[in-house]
Write a structure and sequence with these properties.
Length: 327
């Protein structure tokens, strides 16, 4: 980045990045990461990156590119994975248009035939395609050896539907199954079994995971937390139509866990400032949000059309540039 930022000892400022989930909208996150990595300043040290659902795909791609090569490789992986995720061929584009249309009708209150993913023939095909995309670009057998104190923490969020608790997978435990579980939207995909328990989309839990980025050794704890936020925090006016209400409910539900976890960090920062916690044992973490800042209909969260993916990635790069200029 353009400015030199160090802590009081002249060491690089430790940074963690948290990538919120939100379906196809997380192509925006890929754009932000590309923009940040392209202009990365060595005065910052990335000590952790987390993600949920589509955010987990981005976190994994960025992390793997960085620990196996450099920022350029991470950018290449983000582009490659999203090229594969986009609805590129004719049949995939047709299916994409159908899903977007059905989602729009549903949010408008139109009665639709509802089926469980367990009732849909060939449902596993979509999950298999996601797994193949991941394994095409990431050597998961090598992940364990790549993890260590000199590499950023990697965290993926899911929800354990049997235990009814949030569950995160970190570092060597980030497998294709963990990523798929984080993206297993209940209405679209069957649950993913890991260690004898079934898991759903991490949007029900930590979106994105924050706590695991903070509960690390003191010399690896982030001094700054950059949150790439998909769901709008604020909106003007009152939602009145069914579509507007559905949009806002979707955004609010996606932000609940995020705001709760950030609230804990802000409370600790306040107690340190007020002298209730000793700075010798506790450290402040400055929070920055990189928000999409553009409102899209909730149905577009399933839109994988190449043109829409490109639009979101370009918007992400624009927001990353604005963030860098504001540092």
């Amino acid at each position: 980045m353009s400015d030199t930022v160090t802590d009081g000892d002249g060491d690089p400022t430790r940074v963690a990045i948290a990538c919120q989930g939100g379906g196809s909208h997380t192509a925006f996150t890929a754009g932000v990461l590309k923009g940040l990595l392209r202009e990365w300043d060595d005065e910052y040290e990335l000590v952790g990156i987390s993600g949920t659902s589509g955010g987990a795909f981005n976190a994994l791609a960025a992390w793997y590119g960085l620990v196996t090569a450099d920022e350029d490789r991470a950018i290449e992986l983000l582009d490659a994975i999203w090229e594969d995720l986009s609805a590129s061929d004719l049949s995939d584009r047709f299916l994409n248009n159908v899903l977007v249309g059905l989602s729009r009708l549903e949010s408008a209150g139109v009665p639709l035939l509802e089926l469980s993913p367990y009732q849909i023939p060939g449902q596993e095909i979509g999950k298999d395609e996601l797994r193949e995309t991941l394994e095409r670009h990431v050597d998961f057998d090598a992940v364990s050896d790549l993890c260590g104190r000199e590499t950023p923490e990697l965290v993926v969020g899911t929800v354990n539907i049997n235990a009814g608790v949030f569950e995160t997978f970190t570092n060597e435990d980030v497998t294709p199954k963990a990523i798929l579980a984080s993206a297993a939207v209940p209405a679209l995909f069957e649950a993913v079994e890991i260690n004898g328990h079934y898991h759903w989309d991490g949007l029900f839990s930590q979106n994105p995971p924050i706590d695991d980025l903070m509960t690390v050794d003191a010399d690896r704890k982030p001094e700054e937390l950059w949150v790439i936020q998909i769901n709008s925090q604020e909106r003007e006016g009152e939602p009145t139509t069914l579509a507007e209400i559905a949009d806002r409910r979707n955004e609010l539900s996606g932000n609940i866990s995020l705001n709760q976890e950030l609230g804990v960090i802000e409370r600790v920062n306040k107690w340190i400032d007020e002298g209730h916690l000793p700075e010798s044992d506790f450290s402040r973490t400055e929070i920055h949000r990189i928000a999409m800042g553009t409102e899209y209909h909730t149905s577009t969260k399933v839109d994988r059309s190449p043109s829409f993916v490109r639009e979101l990635m370009e918007l992400g790069e624009q927001r990353a540039a604005e963030f860098r200029r504001g540092r």
